[in-house]
Write a structure and sequence with these properties.
This protein is an alpha/beta fold. The protein has 12 helices and 14 strands. It starts with 13 loop residues before the first helix and ends with a helix. 49% of the residues are buried.
């Protein structure tokens, strides 16, 4: 039987296509009034003072890391290699969680993840902090929030900034609070496979006005055109409005979003609570189906507040876990279940690592488990109960080799 269980699917209907047509009829496609409307709506939803939309979640991380460099570390003294300081990151995440820090002249310090939640291990964070540490980047993986109470405590005690990569976990919450509210800067992604989709798109949220000013400047060339005259960061003693439109204050980018994406985002945000409800319902059905079988396959551990971006499994057999994972991939392919590694697995094993200013101070058993024995399958905005009923048998078959 073919299950037709894809990694991602569209959640658009006529609302989104009508929104696209409205923008097309307007004849204005670059960042404008729809972007501003979506930013205000998203900031209110996220519970943050400010929101800045960009053209992808990867760009959100790039602009966020750059803003931290120019606002929080503007007085940092580079070391002999020209590095501004160390940023602690989890070994399991997506590539563009890490690259923006390298591109901003930070040293990456990779630490382990918890074997059950796959999120950054807070004990490893504590052990990795040195006098050169300037920040912690916590990632909420696959819809599950990291331990932000402890991350923020460590940051406060040691005078560090925090960046929250929430690209996979829109709508999640924990006893710490709502994801996207924890970091000095928090980022979201609206790529096709994520909780809401705007074609391409991302968002950065914060409460600090200086960071917000830097984000708006960095997003569009580093100029002052998007920055109000009255602001603390660029100062108020500036030249005329005419000349300010073409004056540059920061070495910025061009990662502006399209009005098309913002118009879709407005419609998607209206539907998000229902999307989230169904994703959580699928997760509960899956948990119930797994509770009746004896297997070494373990679903990512998460509390009730997870937004269940996808379903991540690891096989915990101490000797054959890797073999069972590889067998399951074959079974999935035969059965019409699309699968992939959990995010990028242990990122320190990637060939690109040799180009980074990076350090791995300790062993990474959690990341290795995810890399060697992990697999990820999709969750969706529609009912998956029929597919889920057949999944336990596939898992058990993989362990019969």
């Amino acid at each position: 039987m073919t299950l037709n269980w894809n990694l991602a699917s569209t959640s658009w209907d006529s609302d989104e296509y009508d929104a696209l047509q409205d923008v097309i009829r307007s004849g204005f496609f670059s960042m404008g009034t729809k972007t501003e409307e979506f930013e205000k709506k998203f900031a209110d939803w996220a519970g943050r003072k400010f929101a800045v939309m960009v053209n992808s979640g990867s760009s959100a991380n790039l602009v966020a890391a750059s803003a931290l460099r120019y606002i929080r570390d503007s007085d940092a003294i580079p070391d002999s290699k020209g590095l501004l300081g160390e940023v602690i990151v989890p070994a399991v995440s997506w590539s563009t969680t890490f690259f923006p820090f390298f591109q901003n002249r930070y040293k990456l310090v990779f630490v382990d993840v918890d074997k059950e939640t796959f999120n950054i291990d807070v004990k490893s964070i504590k052990e990795a902090i040195t006098p050169r540490t300037v920040g912690i980047c916590g990632v909420n993986l696959l819809g599950s929030s990291a331990n932000w109470t402890e991350i923020k405590r460590l940051a406060t005690v040691n005078g560090l900034w925090t960046m929250e990569d929430n690209c996979e976990s829109m709508g999640s919450f924990s006893t710490d609070g709502k994801s996207g509210t924890f970091g000095d800067l928090s980022t979201f992604s609206f790529f096709y496979s994520h909780h809401i989709c705007t074609m391409e798109g991302g968002m950065i949220v914060c409460d600090d006005e200086n960071l917000y000013t830097a984000l708006r400047s960095l997003r569009a060339h580093g100029w002052a055109r998007e920055v109000p005259i009255e602001n603390k960061f660029l100062g108020t003693e500036r030249s005329s409005k005419w000349s300010e439109n073409f004056r540059f204050y920061l070495p910025g980018f061009n990662v502006r979003p399209l009005e098309l994406s913002a118009a879709i985002g407005i419609k998607q945000l209206d539907k998000f609570e229902e999307i989230l409800r169904v994703r959580r319902s699928n997760a509960q059905i899956l948990k119930a189906s797994l509770s009746n079988i004896e297997t070494n396959w373990k679903l990512q551990s998460s509390d009730i507040g997870s937004s269940w971006f996808t379903f991540g499994f690891v096989n915990t057999h101490p000797e054959y876990g890797h073999n069972y994972r590889n067998k399951l991939i074959e079974i999935f392919e035969e059965s019409g279940v699309q699968s992939r590694p959990i995010v990028a697995g242990d990122f320190t094993t990637n060939p690109v690592f040799k180009w980074l200013d990076a350090e791995v101070p300790f062993n990474l058993p959690g990341a290795r488990l995810v890399d060697d024995c992990g697999v990820m399958i999709g969750n969706h905005h529609y009912d998956l109960s029929e597919q889920i009923q057949l999944l336990p048998d596939l898992l058990l078959r993989s362990e019969r080799i």
